[in-house]
Amino acid sequence: MKIDLDAERIPVSCPYCGMQHFERIGILRHAPGLVCVACLETFRMQPGQLDFILESAHRSMDDLSMRLGSPLGTRSR
Ligand SMILES: [Zn+2]
């Protein structure tokens, strides 16, 4: 099973006004510059921030698939 991360939206906060935007990873990957809809300032994601988000997303997906793949035989009384 392959999940297309590029279609996922992640929260990105505007450094000027703190407004939270949800942007697709695919867009951020190719054009990290964003325009805030609230204050109309342009800003970029910090270097490494996207990498960090992608890495943690991959990790949680691995964790999820591991949990889905394991038998549900560990029922607690
Ligand atoms: Zn803003």
Largest sheet: 2 strands, antiparallel
Number of strands: 4
Biggest β-sheet: strands ordered side by side in the sheet: 1-2
| Overall pLDDT level | 84
Bound molecules: zinc ion
- Radius of gyration (Å): 17 Å
Strand content: 15-25%
Straight-line distance between termini? 33 Å
Class by alpha and beta content: alpha+beta
Q: How many domains make up the 3D coordinates?
A: 1
SSE pattern, N- to C-terminal: EEHEEH
Number of helices: 2
State the low-pLDDT regions, or none.
none
- The 3D shape can be described as elongated
Helix content: 25-40%
Write the layout of secondary structure elements.
Elements: E1 9-13, E2 20-24, H1 25-30, E3 33-35, E4 42-44, H2 49-69
Antiparallel strand pairs: 1-2, 3-4
Zinc ion binds at residues 14, 16-17, 19, 36, 38-39, 41.
Write structural notes for this entry.
There is one protein chain. By secondary structure, this protein is an alpha+beta fold. It has one domain (5-69). Helix content is 35%, strand content 21%. The protein is elongated and about 55 Å long. The protein starts with 8 loop residues before the first strand and ends in an 8-residue tail after the last helix. Zinc ion is lined by residues 14, 16-17, 19, 36, 38-39, 41.
